[in-house]
Amino acid sequence: MEHILGSEWEVTPAGGATGDAYFARFQDRKLFLKRNSSPFLAVLSAEGIVPKLVWTKRMENGDVITAQHWLDGRELKPQDMNSDRVTELLSKIHHSKELLDMLKRLGKESLLPQDVLLDIRANVDLDLQKEPVVEQGILYLEREVDFVQPEEYVVCHCDVNHNNWLLGENEQLYLIDWDGAMIADPAIDLGLLLYWYIDPAEWKGWLEKYGIALTDSLQKRMKWYVVSQSILFVQWHRTKQELPEMNYWLNYLKVLLENES
């Protein structure tokens, strides 16, 4: 990365799953660099959803490097997730025609519940599928799939973990790491956020601020996606041989399936 910016810049890896992200610093200037970000990033920047995009450069080998403002903010903590800022930003994302049009232009297909089920069947290890709680979860997904068809399709982030919410020094909230964005049922994002961070007694009020009612259909769809995501988390941590985390999600899945609400 130094040859792009100049030798005076100090460039360090930013970590992450892909290993293609970097921090760059020169005097009081700081940038976040990423290799081969989606063109979607430009629209997210224009909408104020991610830190401002400074420039984009295409390399001779075809790689595209993007540079964003590197903020000195902080990630949200779990207890921060019930703030009105989070509700408002997620609602803005889900209701944005500009974001939806861009993902469609980039060739994204709408994600159906049937697609999620096929993904689990194809990518979860066969012996893991026979684990009693995982088997029970898959049976639940198969039984309910016809009853969780989306009422609308929106841009979903699909990983609304608190670590992906960044509060800048200017107190502006951003949602980062859009590599997994999909056109899908908003219940994907809503389910994960509400189940993980919000007391069920507060769901109704939270959703009213977001802009919709807590209906039986929404509750059913949210639970369906949380069950499916939990199974995929079990597989993810199993692949990485992270047994404590895998066991956490197995237990979480068990509790989910025991709760009939």
UniProtKB/TrEMBL annotation:
Q: What UniProt keywords are attached to this protein's entry?
A: Transferase
Q: Which Gene3D superfamilies match?
A: 3.90.1200.10
Entry keyword annotation includes Membrane: no
Q: Which Pfam families match?
A: APH
One MF term in the entry's GO annotations: transferase activity
Is Transferase set as a keyword in this record? yes
Q: Where is the Aminoglycoside phosphotransferase domain?
A: 14-219
PANTHER family xref list: CELL CYCLE REGULATOR CCRZ (PTHR40086:SF1), PHOSPHOTRANSFERASE YTMP-RELATED (PTHR40086)
Its protein name is Phosphotransferase
Q: Which organism is it from?
A: Priestia veravalensis
